[in-house]
Give the backbone structure.
Amino acid sequence: MSKRRVVVTGLGHISPVGNDVATGWANLLAGKSGIGKVTRFDASELNCQIAGEVKDFDISAYISPKEARRSDLFIHYGIAAALQAVADAGLDDVADLDKTRVGVNIGSGIGGLPLIEDTGVAVQQGGARKIGPFFIPGSLINLIAGHVSILKGYQGPSYGIVSACTTGAHCIGDAARMIQYGDADVMVAGGAEGAISKLGMGGFAAMKALSTRNDDPETASRPWDKGRDGFVMGEGAGVLVLEEYEHAVKRGARIYAELIGFGMSSDAHHITAPSAEGPARGVQNALRDARINPDQVQYVNAHGTSTPLGDANETNALKIAFGDYAKKLVVNSTKSMTGHLLGGAGGVEAIYSILAVYNQVSPPTINLHEQDVESGCDLDYVANTARDMKIDIAISNSFGFGGTNGTLVFKRM
């Protein structure tokens, strides 16, 4: 069957670099880091004491304090980003919007870990009577979509995909297919995470996955640099409003970009260690789905976590997928400024890719001062300064534990 076209008409953003799209994008282009010392809890006993925390966030701007107390932080971030995206798309102004044709797919990689952690401590100290009635719904991953559906009365598909750090990309890609194949006309889709807690950071620290550059947080995330020593945890949410093209045109919506391709794959290799072939296959599947040739892509928003193995691996994957043309790509890691938002990464990075296409500019990869060419990291990574450039087609890569991969392809309208 002929697939329907899918366009992006709304954006919502909560991240360490800003609590709305305009602020976050401006800070990215300026190369401003959102990473600092952990303030959420006492991290002094951890070997990593830095993170990309969301700052000055007020959930009461979106829902009542009473309602907010019933759910964990990742749900707050997801709701806020979703409501921003809906407002940006102007959906509330559509008088004849068929809400049975509007759905929500917003996931999280980890979900309500801080609430689970705090409840566990409370139970140890005071017994089972300390478990609140909202503990379960307050920590379930699909409850972001549930809350947004209830708040807005959207009666289409409501769910949340969980696929570690590929979550946001998978939610967006799968939501697009809901529209392509006629199950919905509009989908609110993305990812959220709020797992900066002693248990969350301690778990990644125990794996030796995190940077220990505690004395200089703003330079700790340094993708493709020789001095990289691990990723920095971040938090927040990125949510898009996806819409069937004719539906958007009919109501006169602003269109940021068209989502023309989505590809997935599995490394089938190792639960945490990546392989280059799996991500390359995901990129190739996305290009095939978009029906474009590799040399039609100009910009890649890379997974680019700042780990020694992962950065080199992704570069190799791009070389497999793009061949000699990889040398002509502009490859950027916005995680150098936001840190790694885990399940929220694919959402915010889809937004950054869309804005790169919409504004014809690539954000920089900051902290890249000594490129690690010896490990094969020899592509154009837009070191330290944003670059005005022609971007007709951009791709956004996300990879996750378990060897799961996702790539989104956006085209300029």
Observations:
- The mean pLDDT is 97.
